[in-house]
Structure prediction request, 512 residues.
Amino acid sequence: MLTKVLSGATVGLESIPVEVEVDITLKGFPAFNIVGLPGKAVEEAKERVRAAIKNSGAEFPGKRITINLTPADLPKEGPAYDLPIALGILIAHGQFDVDLSDSLVLGELSLDGSLRHTNGVLPLALLAKQLKVKQVFLPKINAKEAAVIAGIKIIPVASLIQLFHHFNKTRKIKPQPHTSFSQLKPDPYTTEFDMADVYGQEQAKRALQIAAAGGHNVLMTGPPGAGKTMLSRTLPSILPDLTENEALEVTKIYSISGNLSQGQSVIKKRPFRSPHHTTSRIGLIGGGTKPTPGEISLAHRGVLFLDEFPEFPRSSLEALRQPMEDGVVSISRAAGTMTFPAKFLLVAAANPCPCGFLGSAKKQCTCLPGNVARYKKRISGPILDRIDIHLTVPEVATKKLSQDIQSGEKSKNIREKVQKARNRQIKRFSKSGLKAVCNAELSTKQIKKLCKIEKAGQQLLQQAMATMNLSARSYFKVIKVSRTIADLAGENEIKNNHIAEALQYRPREEET
Prediction:
């Protein structure tokens, strides 16, 4: 007898329908074969399914069983096909009669018949909605993750035995209630550090506020102990809320990569990734024989903090250039090309020289001029040109260290200002029909349309182009930073003082 059960495969961040065809025949010796380019985990499903069916009290057919996963030319990876294979065998063997033509099934089986946590559930739930499937059978532990998708019925399955009762109508499984995004608002922000915990560094705090509001990249340069790392780690405390679409984008990445906590529904806080400088290029960008998201994709819609920026391998830093510009990273392998989103806020911290004390008022630099030049050349000009805000973080004066630690403005207050500025941007973009969510994502064409500059500001910008040797990219970055400064001030037009402040954040090397 032949039966078919609908499931799905995830390729990159997209899901493709996979039909699990099960054929049981009386002719030939007993066998259990899986075809359709199964991976190692899918091949091993034969033993998991056999044990799960037996330990659930059902009969495993001692006949010739052939499982075909279609489309046959698509590689199938992971244990999510366990449940559809098991159901297909039981239906084909006639142990119960059920119509699954309007259902999508997925889940990994334990040997005792219970269902385990399975990666990639959210993209498959979105696939079910696209295919207009009425219900999705999946592990109970993943139910909250899929319940954020409206319009489909989520059936949380704890075990095969529970599914038997459901199909026999002796004990129906209650569908998982839909959870709207408004019900999943994050709790009041609690982070390790608060902006009020940072002594001094008022200019750096202001720059990070601008970066958080507009999604601008930041490079902080200063001696050891000046507070670069602490400032970076306070940034999550002032970031704006994730929108619903952003949250779903981030959750899809974490679900596929296996980084979503068990029982969690969606990612509610912006990611903060801080890879060590020994991280490989593939670990940073993504890739591998079976391409997986790297740190830049895991930092999508959040912060990628690269401490000791010049210590990263040159090849890794150069690989950041295209994702920083396009917001996506395309990984090509012999098997095909996969594209992962990578719209992150880059925060980099660097010392001014190998010893770290070049220009310090407290300690003399011991580096030779040639060593300093070679150290600075580790970061190429194209990378520096893609950074919106360049900061020099000086040493904190002893007088400020003795002040009350809570004398500065708290993160909660700063975050409210940042959220208002981000809301202004989203409102402005929606009126123009744009999908951008922050000023840093604006294209050159969109900048000319949305960023109106008063006459005095235009004159100042033209003078800066001539005197500071700004590139075309730097020119538009100054305008985008100015637009964010104006948003923080609640202004509709970019004024002279906004341009002047934005110009302060260009690197000194461009000055003449």
Residues 411-431 form the longest helix (21 residues). The chain has a mean pLDDT of 92.
